[in-house]
Write a structure and sequence with these properties.
Elements lengths: L6 E4 L3 H12 L2 E6 L12 E7 L4 E5 L14 E4 L4 H12 L3 E8 L5 E6 L5 E6 L2
Parallel strand pairs: 1-4, 5-8
Antiparallel strand pairs: 2-3, 3-4, 6-7, 7-8
Length: 130
Amino acid sequence: MTGLTPYLFLDGTAREALTFYQGVFGGELVLHTYADFGRDTRPDAIAHGMLNGPVDLFATDADEGDASLRVDGLLFALLGTAEPAVLEEWFADLAEGGEILDPLQVRPWGDHDGQVRDRFGVTWLIGYQG
């Protein structure tokens, strides 16, 4: 793995979120509970989860005292990271239970892009050339 990989601190929804993202992007999902790491305070909560595939993500169920995900002024850009048909499918899948902020459409400069906020509060910019 190389490059930037987002690590989401979620409020008890890490398993649900990573499973959702695996359904959208594909890839291999690995989940480790707090019990797996010898911590019994919340044995079934996710201590560390990884999605490895065309889109890599990490997530955890925020521990007591840790802030959980609140995102303002940030989006994850998936510009040209897959074939146009795949990107359009990802956009539609991320919109399920979420909110389309700006429809995926052709822009005056000829490229396609759009923004969607998924059900976990993550905003995605998805697009492709031509």
